[in-house]
Each structure stands twice: as C-alpha cells, then as structure tokens.
Amino acid sequence: MYRVGIGYDIHRFEAGRCLKLGGVSVPYGWGLAGHSDADVLAHAVMDALLGALALGDIGRYFPDTDLQWKNADSMAMLSRVVEMIGEKGWQVGNLDSNVLAEAPRLAPYVPAIRDHLATVLGVDPERVSVKAGSHERVGAIGRGEGMAATAVVLLERSLSALRGRKE
Description:
Blueprint: E1 2-15, E2 20-21, E3 24-25, E4 30-32, H1 40-52, H2 58-61, H3 74-87, E5 90-100, H4 110-121, E6 128-133, H5 139-142, E7 146-157, H6 159-164
Parallel strand pairs: 5-6
Antiparallel strand pairs: 1-4, 1-7, 2-3, 5-7
Helix pairs in contact: 1-3
C-alpha cells in the first residue's frame, strides 16, 4: 500500500530571472534558466511523485516545446501532479529533499519553502524535509554555475481508495 519515488533536477543560473525554490522567491542576483520558472526543487518533487506511480516524468505532462508552460509557475504544475496522484487513489506520506548550491545561502528560506511545499502537497509540514547543502566547490554546482535538487517521496493509498477496495 506504499510507493516510493525519486526525483532529480538541475538548472544553470541565468541573469535577469527570479530565483524560486519550492514556490518561494529567494533574493539573489541570478535566477535559474528554464522553460517554466525553473523551480529546481518543485521539478524534482514532481518527478519523484510521478516516478512513484510509474507515470513518467514532468516532460511528459509539461513539455518545454509547449508555449503553455513558458514561464509557468512550477507550484501550479506541482499542484496538478498532486491532483493526478489523488485521482489514482494515492496521497503523499512524506517528502525528503535536498537543494545543492554554493550560493545563495538557503537556510533562512528553508522554513518558508517547507511550509509552501507542505501546503501544495496537502500534508503537515512535519512530513516535509528540505535540506540545503553545497557541492564543496566540486563540479559545475561547486563552481556556482547552477543548482540541483533531489527528492524522495513516499506515497500511501488514500483512505477513500482503501474504503472503495473490494476485500
């Protein structure tokens, strides 16, 4: 009655864009490059949710070739993915995530990111973990060229799906 999914995303920094993480604006001189708002954390969470139910990845539902998703709010996209898993009889049990970047320092924003993700996922913030770490100056992330995120989700069969199940 459980499913686990893993998500990963990476984006390079780009001038002139707003940096969004988990739907929260983080003041910084650079944003992330991408077709949508490039919220690397929201994208990793979406891929984890979709992966848990073997539904593919976010590119299948929100392709970067579709102008409908140009500069789209990734949290609205995440909300749609949460609806999709609900329609299939599942709900989020918990989320564990990591954001990897040399800069900016994310610790002051983690509580707001955690709360925002919890709201969209429909769970108590106690079920959402958001950790921030550096890449210790190794590789492209370590050189400050971009940011990556990982996410692991546990999905549980929803109570309504369990009640409707024939024994």
